[in-house]
Specification:
Blueprint lengths: L2 H5 L18 H5 L4 H30 L2 H29 L2 H21 L4 H13 L4 H12 L3 H14 L3 H16 L1 H20 L2 H5 L17 H30 L5 H22 L6 H15 L1 H4 L4 H29 L5 H26 L4 H14 L2 H7 L4 H8 L2
Helix pairs in contact: 3-4, 3-7, 3-9, 3-10, 4-5, 4-6, 4-17, 5-6, 5-10, 7-17, 8-13, 8-16, 9-10, 12-13, 12-16, 12-17, 12-18, 13-16, 14-16, 14-18, 14-19
């Protein structure tokens, strides 16, 4: 029985004793060939996603003094990333990872370089540069998740790799804004924009020059469709729910600023999102240490329910330190929820659409984050809004248990068996 087939049903005794169900730790995954390089390169290559919005905002504000214009430029970059990821992912599913990743990394780095040289004083040119940099962002996150089954030996290792992936990706949104702020303060926005592009290029090269990425070949698509990865009904339902999850995260960013003003602690504007991200890292590590004894649909629904409930204490927080502690609670469940979403995609992705499916996951979060930010602003950034968005995600995920039980795990199983 392959790993994805195991996901569709509760774990059973395989006749090899309890040792067969013992979880694999992150250290065991990182000791495997290529895993540390692939993960490290992906994190480095994705740093621009955390850096660019901050650098663009600071650059515009420094040159024109307009925070609103800077925010609009940062939003244009974020929406361009969300629009471009599925397109790049579909291209990867057709021709492999090497050529699309190289071309996109070079184009994105060139766009950041043009912004560094030309500045952001011309709104039209600045918007064009930001959109180009975003729409050509390499699909490194999706690429990595298609490679995990090729570089780990067992299903237990793959589950641990997914938790390591979901937890460590949060570091992009902790280290990225911090690095952007430090570089801009020390060397100016032009240098920060140039470094942003170079980091994306360097990380991409680190990944695509590794043997698993160079030799990966997409599975043939059985029934070509214009919908691509969106053809399975379950995939559309999952991605819609992930938009709601992203809405909760976007609303938190605005709510953190509001909380900082309300409690007289401006540092909360950065501390609350950082606390959630660090909580996600810890939650992923905890989830990896637990044995997997439930079917994928059960795990997904449980984590979604716990994620929704975890937002409630933050909505009721009455002081800055209480709010900071409460912000870590949804983070503890966010990492496990992401891992369950990866498992669901393994089960539901149509053959030949695995990379695009994971790219849509990235896009769904981007769309949701933008929607949460836009919705929370006019409402004044209430901390109850993330809880409402997470509750909506839970409602949208309720039918997933039955769909996952009936899913035919063909896509990831084919990739995994081809590597054996």
């Amino acid at each position: 029985m392959t790993y994805v087939e195991q996901l569709a049903a509760p774990a059973r005794d395989s006749g090899r004793g309890r040792h067969a169900e013992r979880p694999v730790g992150w250290a065991a995954v990182l000791r495997l060939p290529y895993t540390a390089r692939l993960l490290g390169g992906t994190l480095m290559g994705r740093l621009p996603l955390g850096m660019a919005p901050v650098v663009l905002l600071l650059a515009v504000r420094a040159q024109s003094g307009s925070t609103a214009a800077g925010a609009a430029l940062a939003a244009a970059y974020g929406l361009a990333v969300a629009a471009g990821q599925p397109l790049v992912g579909r291209l990867v599913d057709r021709v492999g990872q090497t050529a699309p990743t190289i071309v996109c990394a070079v184009l994105s780095a060139t766009a950041f370089g043009a912004l560094a040289v030309g500045g952001t004083t011309d709104p039209a040119l600045a918007c064009a540069g930001a959109v180009l940099a975003g729409v050509t962002a390499p699909s490194l996150e999706a690429n990595l998740r298609t490679l995990w089954p090729l570089v780990v030996p067992t299903g237990r290792h793959l589950r641990a790799a997914y938790t390591l992936d979901s937890g460590s990706q949060e570091l992009v949104y902790v280290a990225g804004p911090l690095l952007a702020t430090v570089l801009t303060a020390a060397f100016g926005p032009a240098a920060a924009l140039a470094v942003t592009g170079l980091l994306g290029l360097g990380g991409s090269l680190t990944v695509i020059l590794a043997a698993p990425s160079r030799t990966w070949r997409p599975a043939p698509m059985r029934r070509p469709s214009l919908l691509g990865a969106l053809r399975p009904r379950g995939m559309r339902m999952l991605l819609t729910a992930l938009v709601a999850v992203g809405t909760a995260l976007g609303a938190l960013n605005v709510g953190a600023v509001t909380a900082g003003t309300q409690f007289g602690a401006g540092w909360l504007s950065g501390a609350l999102p950082a606390a959630m991200s660090l909580g996600a890292l810890g939650g992923s590590a905890l989830f990896a240490s637990l044995p997997s004894t439930a079917a994928a649909g059960t795990q997904l629904q449980f984590c979604a329910a716990a994620f929704a409930l975890a937002w409630c204490p933050l909505a009721l927080a009455e002081g800055p330190w209480t709010a900071l502690a409460c912000a870590a609670l949804p983070g503890l469940l966010f990492g496990p929820l992401l891992t369950c979403c990866y498992q669901a995609i393994d089960l539901m992705a149509a053959p030949g659409t695995v990379t695009e499916s994971y790219s849509w996951l990235v896009a769904s979060f981007g769309i949701g984050t933008a929607a949460g930010t836009g919705l929370a602003g006019p409402l004044g950034g209430p901390l109850a809004l993330p809880a409402a968005a997470a509750a909506l995600a839970l409602v949208l995920l309720l039918p997933m248990r039955g769909l996952l039980r009936r899913a035919r795990p063909v896509a990831a199983a084919a990739d995994y068996e081809a590597a054996l």
